[in-house]
């Protein structure tokens, strides 16, 4: 899939790529090695602001957390676009999602589906990927979710 169809699909979904989120520490948003782009962990940041904080299963409903994971995925696409261009994405290879989880919360896979389903909606079969969904005690800035991804590019 080329970037033009991906951009068209985003528009069809009522979405647009956000500005690249500035790094919060000493790293870059994305780096290319060979035919892969590795995207640093993305938080649900919109217009420079973290849009939610708290633990999923206590402060943040799982459905809301899935929406936040979707925003993280959009931020990941923006990072790839700024580095090599969205049109170069051939495949979503791997997604790792981290969920700041309340004690006893075990719905991490459902939360990270927000990111996975976005990639599937945008890239079709090329959006199917390997994945991990991990519950953690805390995330940067108190975010409820963080998503990193690896993309194959042409």
Automatic annotation (TrEMBL):
Stored CDD domains: YjgF_YER057c_UK114_like_1
Matching Gene3D superfamilies: RutC-like
Pfam families associated with the record: Ribonuc_L-PSP
Superkingdom field: Bacteria
InterPro entries registered for this protein in UniProt: Endoribo_LPSP/chorism_mut-like (IPR013813), RutC-like_sf (IPR035959), YjgF/YER057c/UK114 (IPR006175)
Protein name: Putative endoribonuclease
């Amino acid at each position: 899939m080329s970037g033009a169809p991906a951009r068209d699909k985003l528009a069809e979904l009522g979405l647009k790529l956000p500005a690249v989120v500035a790094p919060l520490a000493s790293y870059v948003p994305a780096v290319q090695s060979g035919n892969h782009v590795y995207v640093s962990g993305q938080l649900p940041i919109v217009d420079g602001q973290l849009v939610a904080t708290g633990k999923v299963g206590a402060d943040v409903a799982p459905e809301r957390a899935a929406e936040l994971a979707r925003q993280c995925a959009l931020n990941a696409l923006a990072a790839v676009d700024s580095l090599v261009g969205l049109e170069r994405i051939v495949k979503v290879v791997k997604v790792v999602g981290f969920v700041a989880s309340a004690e006893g919360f075990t719905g991490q896979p459902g939360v990270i589906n927000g990111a996975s389903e976005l990639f599937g909606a945008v890239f079709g079969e090329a959006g199917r990927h390997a994945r991990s969904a991990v519950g953690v005690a805390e995330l940067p800035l108190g975010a409820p979710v963080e998503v990193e991804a690896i993309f194959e590019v042409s």
